[in-house]
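Dig into these lines:

——
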Amino acid sequence: MTESAIPASSEPEPQKAESKMAEPATPEMRVGQSFDIHRYSDDAERTLMLGGVRFDGHRGLAGHSDADVITHACIDALLSAAGLDDIGQMFSDTDPAWAGADSIQLLRRAVDALRAAGWDPVNVSCVAVLDSPKLAPQRELMRQRLSDAVGAPVTVSGRTTESVGALGRGEGVAAMAAALVVRNPHSTASSDDAALAGQQDQRHT
């Protein structure tokens, strides 16, 4: 007895659905840059503040607040990254509320505005240009104070002037900073919301 051959089906076999895992969304990031410069003050009572650290025995810088050029550069880099008002608009030098202000506290306020706009700091890097004082002995303390205020790593380094220009003549100190921020995925705020909140905060300060 012979077995009859079973004809092959002409219908294609159903394709098994390939399971694809959803790829995580790439976080939105932005970079901000800044430059700040302050001349030395003729006021013997001015204290030199750099990165939130007091440098006794050195001429202070001229400015409406404590003139901490390193901290100011960090502030502006963060605000720039988030598309917010710059330091001059947020903390006007014509507003008596900021006269003699501690720049580390201004940095904290700037970070609050940043977060209100839906952004979180990732890191900040700052370079100061000056011949004296040397930053190395206080660099770790500056890093700690700045990082604590930002809530993210902040690095500080120094470069000499090579005796070039006004900075080489000892007329002031300059600083440059770059900041990276990332969009908070749980935030629905916009930069416009934060700018309005900042204006209201200034009116009630």
Q: What stands out?
A: The beta strands are 29-39, 47-50, 53-59, 119-129, 154-159, 172-183.
